[in-house]
Design a protein that fits this description.
The complex is a heterodimer of chains A (285) and B (582). By secondary structure, chain A is mostly helical. In chain A, 72% of the residues lie in helices and 3% in strands. Chain A starts with 5 loop residues before the first helix and ends in a 5-residue tail after the last helix. Helix content of chain B is 58%, strand content 11%. In chain B, helix 3 (59-76) packs parallel to helix 5 (112-131) and helix 18 (433-443) packs across helix 19 (450-463). Classes of the chains: A mainly alpha (285), B alpha/beta (582).
Chain lengths: 285, 582
Amino acid sequence: MTWPSWNLLAQSALSGLFVGSLYGLIGLGLGLSWGLLRTINLAHFAFTFAAAYLCYQLSTQGGFDPLLTLLVIAPLFFVVGAALHWVMTRFEVSPFNSLLLTFGLTAIIEAGIQAIWSADFRRLESSYGQQKFKVGDLFVPVPELITLVMSAGLALALWAVLRHTDLGKSMRAAAQDAPIAAAFGVNQRALGLLLAGTCAALAGVAGVCLSLSFTLAPSQIYTWIGVVFATVMMGGLGTALGPLIAGVVIGVSEALTMAVTAPSWAPIVSFTLLIALLLLRPGKT
Amino acid sequence: MRRTAVVAILAGGALLAMLPLLRLPAFYESILYLALHWIVLATSWNILSGYSGYFSFGHGAFFGAGVYATAVLAGKFDWPFLATLPVAAAVATALGLALGAVVFRVRAVRGELFALLTLAVTFVLATIVLNTSIDGGPGVYLSAVPVPRIAPTQPGTFYLLALAAAVLALLAAYLVQHSKLGVGLFAIHDDEDAAEVMGVPTFRYKLAALAISCALAGLAGGVHAVFISYVTTGEVFSITVPLTVVLMSVLGGTRHWAGPAVGATVITALLYAFTKGDLALTGKATTGAVLIAAILFMPQGIVPRLLQRSPIPRRATARPNAVAAATSRAPAIATPSGAVLLRATGVAKSFAGVQALAGVDIEVRSGEILGLIGPNGSGKSTFINVVSGHYPTSAGSIEFDGREIAGLPAHRIARSGIARTYQIPRPFAHLSVRDNVAAAAMFGGAALSTARARIEAEHWLEFTGLAAKADVLPDALNLHQRKFLELARALASRPRLVLLDEVLCGLNPSEIDEAVGLIRRIRDAGSTVIFVEHVMRAVLALSDRIVVLNHGLLLAEGPAAQVLQRPDVMTAYLGTMHAARA
C-alpha cells in the first residue's frame, strides 16, 4: 500500500466533507421524525429520490434552474409528509410498524420511479454541473458547495427554531411526554403535522442537492439507507446539528479510507463506527 | 395437541415430497423452491425476532454467511454440495453466537437499536467478504458444482432440499414456541427485566434463539448458493433479504409458529403472479401496498387474525382434580423455623453519586413476616431491588440460606427461591393471566415443566381470586387485580422468601383487608415474607418484626408496636414538630 500525497489526502477530506454534508441533510429530516415523532421513516429515502427525479425532470424538460425547482418541490413534499403522518396517527401505528409501513411505501415509490424514468441511470446536466474553482491547491466543485451551504444553513435554522422558539420548545415537550404537553396546551396534532411536513420538505431539499452531484437510479434508494442511519444514530435522534456533524465525520473518514486503501473498503468505516457507538453508549435513546 | 401438529408438519412434508414424481414443468418446481426458501428464512427469523421481540435486520448476514460458506467450499475447494450444508449452518451459527455474546450483554441495545446494529453488521460483513479472497469482487461461479440427483430433475432436487429445510424450520418453530424456551422468549418480548427477575435466563435464551435462527438461515443460504449458481456480495447481503423476511413474518403473524410460513407463501405467490405477465413493477408496488394494508388493518398478522375469528375450542379450562391435587403444598424446601434465612451485611447501593443504601445489616429469620418501613427515599425499594438482583449491589454481602447471592444474575437468585412483586405491576402484556402465572412457576424456584406449571397456575389464580380472569390479557384487569396477579406470579414459583413492594398502595380499605389476609396465608403456607409498606394499619397487623430505614441507613428494628413509639422513628416519619406534639 502506498501512502498518498498530502494534497490528495486534503482533496479527499474535502470531498468527504461535501458528501458528509449530504448525509447530514438527508439524516436531518429522518432523525427529527424519529426522535420527535417516533416515526422511523424509511420512505424518507424514497422521498429524497422522488424529489431528485422531479428536479431532474423539471430542469431537463422544463428548463428551470435546479435550485428554482425547490419552490415547487419543498411545498409538495411538505403536503406528502403531513398526509403520511395523518394516516400514521389515524391508525395509531407503533414506531416499529412505522418502519415496515414506510418500507412498503418505499417499494411503491421505487416502482413508480422505475415506471416513469426506467431503471437506467439518469444524470442531471445543469449549469452548475461542471463549475468548480480553486482554493490553493484544492478544487471546490460548485454543486457540492451548494449542498454544504444548504445542509449547514438548514441545520442551524432548525436548531435555532427548536432551541429558542416557543414552537420548537412545544415540539420537544410533546416528543418527551405527549399527554403532559397536551395538558399544558400544546396542540400536538397540529405540531405533528407541521413537523412531519417539514421533515418531508427537508427530504425534498436533500433530493434536489442529490440530483446536482449524483447519478440517479431507482435501486440507489437503498444504498443510502445504511450510511444515513449510521449518521442519524451517531448524531443523536431528534437533534438538528447532530446529523450534520456526524455526517461530516463519517464522510471524511470514509473518504480518507478510500484514499488510503481501496474504495470498496469505505462502508466498513461508518458501520464499524455505528456498531461501536451502539455498544459503548452508556444511556438509552 | 403437541403430537398432532408435529405429525401434521411431517405428513405435509412427506406429501409434498411426492411432487417431483408428477414431472411438473421445471418452472413450477423453481417457484415452489423459492416459496419454501422464503418459508425457511422467514420462519428462522421469527424464532428470534418474532418470539423475543429482538427485531433483527441482520438476517442477510446469517443467510450470507451460509451462502458464502457453501460457495467457497463447493466452488473453490471442490467439496461435495451436500457436505457443505452442515458447514454453512455451522458458520452462520458461529457468527450469530459471536455477535450475540457481545450484543446481548449490552442492556441499551434493544428494539430499533438492535435492528440497526444487526443491519450494520450485515454491511461490515459484506465489505469484508467483498475485499478478501472469500469473494474478492467478481463473485463466485458455482455452475460447475455437481448437484446430486435426489429427484429426477435438478430443480426437483432443489425443491426437495428446500422442502426438507422448511419442515425442519417449522418443526423448530413449533417446538420452541411450545417449550419453556418459547415461554421465556415471549416473556422477554414483553418485559425483559421482569422476566430475568422472575427466573428466565434471558441471556442464554436469547443466544439459543439466535443460534437456532442462524443455523436455519445458514442452511437456506447454502442451498440457495448453488441454486442461483452465481453469488455476489451485492445480491447476497442486500437489504432485500431482511426486509422481505420481516415483511413476510409481520404479514403472517409473528406470535405464531406458522405465521411467517403463511406470509411467505402469500408474498411469493403475489410476486410470481405478476412475473408471469412481465409485470414485476406492479408486483413490487402491490407487495408494498399489501404491507401497508396489513400494518394498518391487521397489525397482528393473518394467522392470529384467523384464529381470532374461529377460536379453537380451549382445552378444559378448569381441572378440578388437578387443582385439588395441587392445593395444599409447602414450599419446595422448608427451612426449620427460626434459622436465619437471609443475612444482609453492609449492603450499599449508589446511583451516580446518590447513596440509596449506605451499608445496611438486616437479618430475616425463616417463617417470619418482616415489615420494612421508612420515609420516601429511605432505601426500602432499593433493598428489595438489590436482594432480587434487579440492581447489582455496590458493596456488602447478601447470604440466602447460607449461600452468597450478591452479584449473581437475577434469574439465579429467583431460582434459589426468592420471588418479588413490583410496586407498579409489570405483567407480561401479551400473555394471558394464566400464562403469566404459569411462566413464574416454570422459571422460578419451582422450575416446573410447562404442563405442570399450568396446573400450578390454576391453584394460585384461585388463591388470589383471579380464576375467572385466567384467559384475559392483563390489560383487562383493574389495579387491584393487577396487584394480585403480581402476588400470584410471585407465589407460583413456590418461593422460600417473598419480597412484596408496596402491594397495598392504591387499594381501598376492604381490598387492603383482603390482601392482609392473603399475606398471612402466604406465611402459613411456609414462605418467609419481607414487605415494604406505608399503610401502617397493615404493618401493625401483619409484621412479626419491623425494620425502619432512613437515608439509606438502618434506624431501628424490633416489634412494630414498640419501634413505632420511638421518638427518632417518629421524627424520621413525621418531622420534628409532629413528633413533639405526639
